[in-house]
Amino acid sequence: MDAGIASEDNIEWLKENKYPYIVVSRKRHRQFNDDETVVVEQDEDCTVKAQKVIDSKTDEVLLYSNSIQCEKKERDINHRFTVRLEEALKYLDEGCISRGG
C-alpha cells in the first residue's frame, strides 16, 4: 500500500481481515542502525543498505532502507530550510530596528 492510503484504520482493517500486507510507512523517524544493515545494491555512484527490524509491540516486520543519495537529498533539504529560516530571521531583525518596521 502506498503511504497515502496507509492510515492506521486501513492497516487495522487488513489485520482484522487477516490480509498480509506491505505498506510504505508514514513515519518520519527511522530506527536505522548502520551496524545491522545489509548492502542491497552497490555501484560506483550509490550504495543502498537495508535493515530488518521486528516491532516487539505489533509483531510487524519493518524494513528500513538508506542510500547515499537519500542522505544527500535530506541534507540539501535541511540546508535550504536553514538558509530560508536564517534569511527570515534576519529580515525580522532588520525590521525591528528600522523606523516603521
Shape: flat
Count of beta strands: 3
As a whole number of angstroms, the C-alpha radius of gyration is 21 Å
Q: Could you say how many structural domains there are in total?
A: 2
Counting H and I runs of at least 4 residues, what is the number of helices?
2
Helix content: 25-40%
Q: What percentage of amino acids are in beta strands?
A: 15-25%
Q: List low-confidence stretches.
A: none
Average pLDDT reading = 85
Largest sheet: 3 strands, antiparallel
Which strands sit side by side, in order, in the main sheet? 1-2-3
> Whole-Å distance between the termini?
50 Å
Helix/strand class: alpha+beta
H/E element order: HEEEH
Protein name: Transposase
Your description of this structure?
- This is Transposase.
- It comes from Desulforapulum autotrophicum (strain ATCC 43914 / DSM 3382 / VKM B-1955 / HRM2).
- It contains two helices and three strands; from the N terminus they run H-E-E-E-H.
- The model has no long low-confidence stretch (mean pLDDT 85).
- The protein is α+β, with helices and mostly antiparallel strands.
- The protein has two domains: 1-30, no CATH class; 33-101, no CATH class.
- The protein starts with 7 loop residues before the first helix and ends with a helix.
- It has a three-stranded antiparallel sheet with strand order 1-2-3.
